[in-house]
Fold these 2 entries.
Entry 1:
Amino acid sequence: MSLQKPETPNARILVCLSSSTSNAKVIHAASKIAAAFQGTLIALFVETPAYALMSGDDRKRLRSNMNLAEKLGAKLETVTGDDVPYQIAEFARVSDVTGVVIGQTNTFGGLLRRKKSLTDRLVAYAPDLDYFIIPYYGTKVYVARKPAERSRKRLLADCAVFLASMVVSTAIGFLFSHLGFTDANIIMVYLLGLLAVSILTTHRAYSMVWAVISVLLFDLLFTTPRFTFYAYGTGYPVTFLIMLVAAFTISTLAIKLKQNAGQSAKAAQRMSVVLETDRQLTKARSSEEILSVLADQLTKLLNRSLIIYPAENGTLGDPVFYPAAGDTVPYRTNEEKQAVEWSFSHHKRAGATTDVFPESDYLYYCMRVQDHAYGVVGIAVHDSPPDASEQSVLASVVGECSLALENARNAREKEETMVLAENERLRANLLRAVSHDLRTPLTSIMGNADSLITCGDTLDPKTRNQLYSDIYEDAQWLNGMVENLLSASRMNGGKLNLNMTTELMDDMISEAVTHLSRQLKNYTVVRNRSEELLFVKADARLLVQVVINLLDNAAKYAPEGSTIWIDTAERDGNVVVRIADDGPGIPDDQKDRIFDLFYSSGNPTGDSRRGLGIGLALCQSIIRAHGGTISVSDHEPHGAVFEFALPRDEVNLDE
Amino acid sequence: MNKPLILIVEDDPPIRNLISVTLDAHEYRYIVAANAGNAILEATSHNPDIMLLDLGLPDMDGVEVIRKIRSWSNMPIIVISARSDDSDKIEALDAGADDYLTKPFSVDELLARLRATLRRLNQAKSETPDSPVFINGSLKIDYAAGCAWLSEEELHLTPIEYKLLCVLARNCGKVLTHKYITQQLWGASWENNVASLRVFMATLRKKLEAAPEASMLIQTHVGIGYRMVKAADS
């Protein structure tokens, strides 16, 4: 055991926690060692079956040792098992521990103990680690002690089991002997009785006594000469010896098995909570969902009242309280405030059982990942502090949730970046397509105007009028394009630019019809209004633009003289607007793509009959941004139907 | 009657040219100003009948010009705005403008607005102020009696509908913003007031539909407000 400086730059120093008074000295020493190596300190508590029997004072000391370790900057960990050195070695191996600090008493007491010292056994398990031995005198190391309050009742029950199994085994032995079965069967019956005693009694002593007595009874009752301790058979001494050894071995194994079963049941329960948390967290998307998973799981695990303070933009939000069944103590928001805020700003535990605001009713954990705190979880303590294993599971559940919150935040940020990139891509495409689309009418306007300027006098009136009206129409088309572009520019960046007000759908339609009165003058417009007042929550300008585009589309593709129907109705809580024409309609293979951006500009027929370019795509994105749907279908017997639906809005009247 | 004098405030020469040629062709007199400073100067020295004001001026915001003019004159102001956003129109209307035109506007539209404004101006001159009875087409309001008739038949209006009708009638010809109307009705302008306003406006219109041309008296200006027009204009 040489005290040699670890060579690894990232020293990870492990110190074991116990309930002994001397443990504090070891923790202090470990903290100094970790500081000297500029390494991290890990405080490990091995929870053995004896932990459950620990007295209140021991628990208190253990807790204060844990707090001390945490205060000194140690990371707290708990493992479960009954072989302490093995657990330490295993933990050291999986978590890359470089050095272990152990306290050791003078080996004076070692004479009485048949086991080797903890250090010796630890070295045997993990010879590669660096060990730092802190000696101390006269204090007890952490061993299982008889619980003081063990009841007399328990003792009586154990004795009853002991006697009963002895009587039953002996009775069966007599029966077997009477039936002429061999000795081996009787030995088996006694061993079976031993097994029952080992499992049913609470102390090892019973099974040990039983082992000895069973051998004596067998000798006394079943070997010839019977009812004496003599045995004639030459093999009997060997039989007795083997029986005794077997009895001891069986009792030891049975007791161990019993302990392990209890422990693994507890560990399994904790593990299942952690796994369940994990499983639910993978499903949770929003911060609210994650926090509700946290509350669910912790309530399941601890059956204590919980309070969760979510953090938004670095400040704590309003808490959500989850009272446990039977917890009637009201939450004192004002008194607890300081502990909560301390925990949040220092990213550490605070409140009850810790050194910071220990007078609080609640123990607070900060949900954090690295330097970012996502909130604070408070667990009701009310004078019954969570034990070490509960705290450890608590810490891991809280840790999982913090990670999930971090992931949710990252996902949100990533999504925002992607939306931004998508917007950027759309904008670039839009510019390209628009500049192409703008050139065509501009060429026509410039050419026509040029002809009129240079040789307007020589043209006959009919040709001249044609040029004038061409210029007008092209300018009108350009104006429509500009309106759409302006709407599109407001759509960029999502809903943020929407100026949502409660609007009467009929007003929107009237406005659009008025706006297009010139284009629609050769069409019959039929309006079917609903009797009810249909309101929607919408950006009025954009919604009018949708109706304008749909009407304009109908006027463009249906020949002059056609009828255009505009129906408004209420359907399943939505306001549905249906714009139909009796023109040629839209072929099925184009219906899917008609709402694609720039679809009509790629249309081979686009040059002769200019489309609106971005019109329908814009309609779709506006309607979607309003939480509605838009679709196209066929009109009977021919023609196209565009239909959009928006959630209906109710108005609370001010009188 | 003297030919009315129009002040054109527009910094863009082709538009200024377009408006002045149009006015000339329809026998209006006009003066022009290319910036806000000149506009205020011309307005004070010539006292025009109507001002056509472009909001995007190089030296001063158009809304500021309206405020300055309104400090001493009630001359009708028709705002011309190239901005697509409604908020600047609303701002201009709330500052005291009477009407607005959005570029690109058609010549017909411009002339129609001028005619309507002039008619309102003439009527205002002939009527005594605070006349107790308001008549517009088949609609008649007796302010003193607190009731309204449509084609000689009394309209059964709720108190708020009546109040709304009066607000519109008193400002006949002017575009009233939602904010203005809700403040007149409720003394405040919350979002829910505007939604309620739409409901009352819809029910009021339903009642006016008994005489088809009367329901046309109230125009909706989406995103901006409402206006009652003179019967002959609608």
Entry 2:
Amino acid sequence: MSRVRVLLADDHRILAEGLRSLLVPEFDLIGVVEDGRAMVEAAKALKPDVIIADISMPQLNGIEALEEVRKFNPNVRVIFLTMHRDVVYARRALEAGAVGFVVKHAALDELVLAVRAAAQGRIFVTPALAGEVLRGMKHDPLETADPVASLTLRQREVLRLLVDGLTTKEIGSKLHISARTVEDHKYRMVECLGVKGNAELIHFAIKHGIVGP
Amino acid sequence: MVVLYAPFGATAVKPKQVLLLHSFGREFAPYNVIAAAFRSELAKDSGEPIAVYDATMDAGQASGSDVQEPLLELLRRRFSDSPPDVVVTMGPPAAAFYPQNRDKVFPATPLVITGVDERFVLKSALRAGDAAVASHQSLPGVVDNILRVLPDTQRIALVLGNSPLERFWAGEGHRQFARFANRVSIEWLNELSLEQMRQRVATLPAHSAVLYTILLTDAAGVPQERGAALARLSEVSAAPIFSLYERELPQGVVGSSGPLHSQQREGALAAAAVLRALSRENPADPTIQIVDYEASVYDWRELKRWGIDLARLPTGSEIRFQPRPLWDEHRTFIITALAIFLLQAALLIALVWQRIRRRRAEEEALALSGRLITAHEDERRWLARELHDDITQRLVGAAIDAANLPGSDQSPRAIDARRSVSNTLMQLSEDIHDLSYQLHPSVLHDLGLVEALRAECERVARSEAMRVDVAADDISQSLPREVALCIYRIAQEALRNIGRHAKASIVQLSLGLKDGGLLLAVSDNGSGFEPGLQIRPSLGHASMRERIRLLDGKLDIRSSLGGGTIILAWVPIPQVAA
């Protein structure tokens, strides 16, 4: 079995040198580039098996570069190696089509594992983040029905004015209805949407774009 | 009819007695002016009390010694104790009557004649110690004066009564006016009643004038009061009216057109003559004193009304009722008003100026605080980048190098030591990365605002043990850095406040587009606060407001005690010109 051909994209030379020492014993390091644009060019020219890329890079960042590369090579295998331990990075990276996510602080132990996994078509996520990444993925709500559709036009108007910061009384006078009627609309919306109180109504409105673009 | 006035207290101290014999009555114009001046001058100049007794002939009605006999009888009785010390006659009828009859009453009493034209003084009737103070009425002079003032005058209507006295004057006038025959036509109104005179003066043609002379009794035999008759004429007259007496000026008369004598002066001279008579100082030869002419007097309003050029008035003329210039009349008022106005204007200017200055200062303060926030953020961003892009990466590199020192000791102790150094370097790198992140969230640039908010929420949820729900769709639009940073910082501040104060278990954060801007809502189910009762202004809220204001956004913080808090922040997204 031939050695895995790896392209390294990191704008930090000293770190890149350190990484080289980690990778060279096991893989074929065919290139080191220092920005996202160069990574796209090198990916096109060198056709590496695995790309190890930082996310924070000049020109294009790693994720943007990945999206570019996927345009001509949808099966590209990219492992993100980053300082960021935030799960949002990991999630975003995986959504963008990465096959690995390793924080730099764990590179010593995990980078080689991640490259091996990628070469075998598996996904590797730094174990410290893996749990949270999965939880976040699962969280993705499957909208069964559009809850906005269950609101009447008048209720939407009330909701919109509520977000504008108007009091019940002001909403009433603006819509030429009594404050009591406004309260009634709010109560029905709260019931219908299964939310609690004004604050959740406002969040609902923002989330569903009732406040308008 | 005979009337006798007796002043009170007359007999007590036995003062000097003066009998003043009026022709027509005490109040009869124009003699009343002379009489009044006479009285006041007499009282003023005499060192002792003088009792003046008024007696009146009924001269307007009839004449003749038989008719006046009761008067003489009355006088005799009145002064039965002792005769008056001086007798004064006022007006022409008395001047004619008394000298003829003095021997019947007070033959030894000196006589002073006044209120007459010198032509009525019977010089032959005067005796040693007597005196006369008379005028010289120059009717032609008056006409001359009218023609001088109104050169275009072609007709002068002459108002005159029809009593014997007035007929005398008519005769005098006809004789004296002969020289005007080619210059001006004199129209005599003495054959008319007052009503007819009114009709006549109302219909006078242009270039006419009216001369009001004497009107005791009109042609209808009706006695006339001088002032009232003048008023009736002036109210209808189509031509300017001239009179002989300055007193009549305010009654619609253009002027008392000289050469005229002053009645005041005539009264004063008569008083002086009486005082001399009382002290027996009058010369043995009876004197006739003629009152000097005075300057003509004109009414400014009438001059204007009839368009008379002031330059035409005789030199030395007196002009009355000329409105003083506004300045003279209201000087104090004008100065005061002006001063108040200026003061107010000055105050106003000062206020406006102060306001402008304050506004400018406020603007500067706002601009400064804006620059401060920007500078602060720039500094943090720079520092964060230095730390993240350089220091942390070098530390990681060093950590990797430390673990893989080539050709070194492979003993378990050495491996452990290298591992330990490497771990310490890694830990250091992580800490500095965290510090960098706190200074400035690189995730904002790497992954955008939504992911940055998610990351922040997850951090808060981890450290504060709260559930933080995020509802934020990807904002497809690319956001200007300052907008994203503003919303991010507000969310960060709101989450920090909740963590510190709210005691909340659930926090919700939403981000959406609204009205061409970004709308962020952060709410909690915590303790909330009474908006009006916040004792010290929250520094967090102040910084939120400041950031929002910098970008012309809106911040709305709603809270109630026990009801949680919701913060709504809206920031417009500037439209990039295509």
